[in-house]
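QA checklist item 7 of 12: single-chain prediction sanity check.
[x] sequence parsed
[x] length recorded as 372
[x] structure emitted
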Amino acid sequence: MQHLLILYNPYYQKNVIEEHVSILINQNSQSSATVAFGKVRSRLRDYEHPHEEKLQSLYRSISRTNYLQLFLTDYSSIYVAKVIEVTQKECWDLAPAYYREKGLDVETWFIISDIRRIVHNDFVQVRDRVLANFTTPNFGGHHYAVYGNSYVYPLVVEMDNEIDYFETDSEEFRYFTEIFKSEARLKSKQSLIDYRFGEEVFYALHPNTQDALISAELEFRENKNDPLYDFTAVVIHLSKAFEKEVYLFLRTLFIKLIEYDHRLGGIEYSVQGKGYTLSDYKNHKPNLGTHKYLLKNRHIQQAIHRYVSNPAVKYFILATIPDTINTIQPVRNEAAHGETTPLSKCVTMRNRIIGIGEHGILCELVGLGREI
């Protein structure tokens, strides 16, 4: 997957992102909605992009199935857009009116089908959690430097920790529909940061995990005093958060183990009747039962005992993760098959995942994952 970074200048238009999202939201079909984002030529730049040929080659490769992740930032906030086409043809009718009204010199149009917010109004998190994950292959391959750089935008970037910001369980879902949700979501997010995770852990979670936790907390808090409420949706959100993070943790572990012993890559397992090997794990997320099955494998256990030196991490992998799966899996399966979820089962899952009155599994996954 290809990634580009562009600095957008609020000088040209104050509500740049809001203007583009508004066009997406107001189209007849949100699942096929598109908007054009224009890369405005800086009035201070009187030369061609030094890597124009590489950019043009990249642009030609972009399509709906091979989309580009375009990061847009003013350093205060940062967003990522799903780009399905790049063109130099005029796209005024697909773009906000301010481009034409202000006579802006657009050198390239990026056709966007979706957009989501990563960090809002927090320069430190933009700098330390997102931009710090970028390297600049056309400028020496060094990590992105906020200060004293000589970058020319659009800037090709690569990620140390590769993240697909547009992976979703539903082909119809679009992130832009939730980008400017109510103040309640922002308060819920801040509450999770302040009282449960802290900024370092929360922003280390996958963006989909963050969204799932916020949705779960909102619904839980609104209905926790109703003894007849069905908490199925809350349980589904919480289980998605756990499934995402335990997969990322074990993916890192198994990749490391295979590096140590290439024979482990041939260990076989199946998911819904389809056969895989451990080498496939990094590209195919299995279900919770498969995680547990693999951790019981004698060869994998031997490799863990041999190559994981920290006893706490070793115990966490071999005991805590399987025990947590045993706690969460039955509740998750009942909810997924349409059974009503009572408050008591929801509380048990919430306590274990978020960490209410006990160590939260998500914090452990993030913290101990750094030890692998």
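[x] summary fact logged: The first strand starts at residue 2 and ends at 7.
[ ] second reviewer sign-off
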